[in-house]
């Protein structure tokens, strides 16, 4: 078991640092939800040439239980095709922060949404925000991945 | 991916073969459902000292997609405690049949239900039924595990 502690931010898409980041390789992510309700989430994710099945418990603020298992890519493709209604596609870019932290910038081309996420070891861990971070949306359900899926 | 082809039968609990089977070791199974609806099933199972996460597609007759992944026992216990409402406990006994097939006899002590299941490679595979098999209930939703859970 892991606990996921994640903070999410809107970003300034026009900032030169972001423009430079978009020139890096990034990872292509395709994901869908077998289940997605207030009790929890069962997610299937294809990421480049790997695939994962992830169980998440209910959200409590910025903390939630998360269990992730690598599964064969062909299982993921079958589950995405047969048991997931909406499929999210996004490009993910890694941006190193100070003290070993890093941000993941997700670009959702289907709905022109750009989000930065920072995973932290504890709820109270502080980190240095890049100056292209804008409003924090960590606890705003509008930006939960399962709700983003509904807008796609 | 595997396809699960499973036939289920009620059994004669008083038959001497069944009485003898009950003297064998068997496996203790504890399982619950993160999701269980017509679209599919996400099941957590603890079986003796191992644990599994299983995704099943919708039922189509006696055939359904099934993906099973071994997971750490402590993950399973956490998922059972936090994300599964009803927990089924059952004792499972293996009974060899002819031609390499075998039956699994499940005893559900919480509701005094005894069921035999036979997994088969194809829908049309025939097998020799033991004389303590009674009515076939393969397609009767009353005997689906997720519905049995609701009666516990």
TrEMBL record, chains A, B:
<dbReference type="InterPro" id="IPR023577">
    <property type="entry name" value="CYTH_domain"/>
</dbReference>
<dbReference type="Pfam" id="PF01928">
    <property type="entry name" value="CYTH"/>
</dbReference>
<protein>
    <submittedName>
        <fullName>CYTH domain protein</fullName>
    </submittedName>
</protein>
<dbReference type="InterPro" id="IPR033469">
    <property type="entry name" value="CYTH-like_dom_sf"/>
</dbReference>
<feature type="domain" description="CYTH">
    <location>
        <begin position="2"/>
        <end position="152"/>
    </location>
</feature>
<feature type="active site" description="Proton acceptor">
    <location>
        <position position="33"/>
    </location>
</feature>
<dbReference type="InterPro" id="IPR012042">
    <property type="entry name" value="NeuTTM/CthTTM-like"/>
</dbReference>
